[in-house]
Amino acid sequence: MDGDIIKHHKGLYLEDGNIALVATTRGTGGKPDEHLVFRLHKSILAKHSPVFKDMFGFPAAPDTELYEGVPLVRMTDSASDLESLLGVLYCEPVFSLKACDPNTPPRVKSILVLADKYDIQHLRELIVDRLESDWPQSLLEWDSLEAEVSSKVEACMVHGVSADRVDDEYPEPASAIQLARQCNIPKILPAAFYHLSRISIDFDWDRLRTGEASVPDEWYTGENRSARWNYLSKDDFICLLQGRARLAEYVEDNLCLQPPYTGSHLGHACSEADWSTFWHQFGKRCRRDPDILAVLRPYGESSTDSIAWKGLCFSCRAKISERTITARQQIWDRIPTFFQLQHS
């Protein structure tokens, strides 16, 4: 390392450490390489990682490179990634992650990649459990999260507060998809892809927050969400577009076609004209809105007096409600098929 820049990590260079790990950042444009040295304890690293345990278990060779009297191991990981991992192992023994934080995937990415590399299972399990809790695994969990978001947006509006920052409190899909693909977390993919499928590409997470582009007025209502679109790979963007198309085709074939009018009713009967008008309006809503689960949700309650039921008798409402509840569950169950996630 002669002629290069050598730096001791401020918090992770411990004088009583018995192993030195060095991560190198290659110099560019004629600048020298920069080496960041961590001086730590073999026993602590070995306790967390069987890979480190095996590495330190070999007898020291006569020509082992030393640094200030202790063995030196040259790491292939970037200095920043290694710093993130070692910081958790040494400085955050109780590593905590906020529920539903949209910044969790970018924050934990380098940590999880190295946790996999060095087989630090307890750290992987903690991160994966948090992500799987953030992303709904069932339609009930999806509806519960959506209800929470809607309630928060409504509260903001009641108090005259801009609701756009509600987006900062709930999971962001593109970075989650990227992390799930790279680190094998398939359970979060269906909900993340569906969520991303209903977000306009005009609502880019970074551009909306940095002022790089004009912000649409509807953004401030809180009814729209944003995504880190630049995190999405080409293959996943194709999966997204194909999934949207398959979902739209399914909706057209299974929901938008008007069933025959039976004429069998209870109480105040509706007319065939009322029936046709309902299905015309229902089909328009299903085709127009990319969030089909949200479109169908109100139709699961036949007892409400929503304007959506205008002109229909209770008997017809009940039939449509039963059909809608079944359709929502079928759509949820088919999300992996729509977005080609069966083998993820």
Strand content of the residues, in percent?
A: 5-15%
Question: CA-to-CA gap between the ends?
Answer: 43 Å
Total number of helices: 13
Please give the share of residues in helix: 40-55%
Written as H for each helix and E for each strand, in order along the chain, the element string is: EEEHHEEHHHHHHHHHHH
- Please outline the major beta sheet: 5 strands, mixed
Keywords for this entry:
alpha/beta; 3 domains; five-stranded mixed beta sheet; 9% strand
Describe the protein in words:
The structure is a single chain. By secondary structure, the chain is of the alpha/beta class. The protein has three domains: 5-76, no CATH class; 95-232, no CATH class; 251-336, no CATH class. It is built from 13 helices and five strands. It has helices spanning 42-48, 50-57, 79-91, 104-117, 121-134, 139-158, 173-183, 189-197, 205-210, 234-254, 272-288, 292-296, 314-338; strands at 5-13, 19-25, 34-40, 66-67, 70-75. A hairpin with an 8-residue loop joins strand 2 (19-25) and strand 3 (34-40). It is elongated and about 95 Å long.
